[in-house]
Amino acid sequence: MPSPLSADRPAARPPGGAPVDALISQTRRLKGEVDAVRRDTPADAGDPRERWRRALYDLAMHQLDDLDEHLAQLREDPPPAPGASAEELPAPPAPPRASLLSRVGSAEWDLLTDEVSWSGELYRILGRDPAAPPLTLDELPSLVLDEDRPRLTEMVTGCLVDGRPIDGEFRVVHADDDIRTVHMMGEPVLGADGSTVSMWAVLRDVSELRRCRRAVSETRDSLHRHRHAAARSEHRLAVELQEAVLPAWHGSLRFPRRGPRALDVAAAQLPPTAQASLGGGWYDALELSADATLLGVGELTGHGVTAASGVAMLLGAVRGMALSGTAPGPLLDCLDRLLGTTAQPALAGAVCLRYRHDTRTAVWARAGHPAPLLYRGRTGRALEAPQGAPLGAAPGSGHGQAEETLEVGDLLLLHTDGLVPGHTGAAAVHRLLALAPRFAGGRSAQTCVQEVVREFGAGERAEHACVLVARIAS
């Protein structure tokens, strides 16, 4: 195996300097462009994302600096051979401290003659006086940190005894106590009988490269922690906002609150199976007067604080207009116009139902949302749906109304899409209507909600889902 004696002494000048000059020009032009972008990057030490970007730009600039330096070496005359006497060996110029790889040094250890050859740059890499003799393989560990010596010994032994290539790193201590990281690559040179007669190695100082990579890693980790903390804060804020606007009741709610019970209401929100941002699902039950109650469910596109704040706006508008006597159809028309005026337009689906206790009639409207389901006895059906596009999808299209007369014991089930995992539209309705026998027998609204959760709560669900059940009690 031939021995590449000195990696920092090219065997011959490359044929013609024009190709190398062209590469150097391209490298320097790219350096200028990267540096221009780096200068335009805000130097905001308080922003983890900007610190991470800055570290990456710095690493790229260091890499380009080294590429420029190494290409320049291709044009230089070969430096003095490491075999020259110490008096003839000039001290190599100090590489820039910002350089990632510095120059590359090389060495060869002849096991038959005990001769050692070091290139000039290797002295600087290992912090040795150029006037001193090169170190033997037995002496080399004396430059290495105690905790790294076993690693170096293992690499050298594996190369000499087992013929394995060397490829690893260790740290050396210079005379000024500066600790540098050195990357070493080498191979054994075999004799005619297959035994190892010498070993050559190429070494380079990778201290700045490791420092820059650590900086990139640390700023990336800091950015991830910052984003994770921001996501937790946003989720907590969204949950608090949702809890503030959704009905603050658990179990069954009775309407009217005073006098004979006419309507028994319960609701639940089912979470997604995987960790996900809070969605825009909502439900509501509001006593409008002694004779009327508002029921509603819906969902707004989006997640997190944006969706939660949108739900807060919609619910506030729904409640205000319902209390003022606005019927469900015109109420959804107003919501449609309201969504069109928001800074961040969104789509929403909703069902609004106004129930009159004295006549047991329900007037309702929908906006691109599943129709309420009516359970009577041991059967169920979806109410015939009036026209109604999703809110924000077709402004001005209008939302029709429908009216249904109910009986004592009837159950109404209002739900958002996604309540039945893996099913939407008619398939989801079919699964929900199959619960009719379990709803029969005068069971409370809360018990019926529990049946829904028991049946569909454990399935794979990508979004939050809401369900509201109202039982006509009298």
N- to C-terminal distance: 99 Å
State which percent range the strand residues make up: 15-25%
The total of beta strands comes to 16
Instruction: Using the CA coordinates, give the radius of gyration.
Output: 38 Å
Structural class: alpha+beta
The major sheet is characterized as:
6 strands, antiparallel
Shape summary: elongated
Would you mind describing this structure in some detail?
By secondary structure, the protein is an alpha+beta fold. It is 35% helix and 23% strand. The chain is built from ten helices and 16 strands. The strands form three sheets. It has a six-stranded antiparallel β-sheet. A five-stranded antiparallel β-sheet has the order 2-1-5-4-3, with helices on both faces. A hairpin with a 5-residue loop joins strand 1 and strand 2. It is elongated. The model is unreliable at 1-15 and 78-101 (pLDDT under 50).
Question: Which descriptors apply to this entry?
Answer:
474 residues, alpha+beta, 16 strands, disordered N terminus
Task: Give me the secondary-structure topology.
Elements: H1 18-40, H2 48-73, E1 104-110, E2 116-118, H3 120-126, H4 149-162, E3 166-173, E4 179-190, E5 196-205, H5 207-245, E6 253-255, E7 263-270, E8 280-289, E9 292-300, H6 304-323, H7 328-340, E10 348-356, E11 361-367, E12 373-376, E13 379-382, E14 402-405, E15 411-415, H8 425-433, H9 436-439, H10 445-456, E16 465-472
Antiparallel strand pairs: 1-2, 1-5, 3-4, 4-5, 6-7, 7-16, 8-9, 9-10, 10-11, 11-14, 12-13, 12-15, 15-16
Helix pairs in contact: 1-2, 2-5, 5-6, 6-7
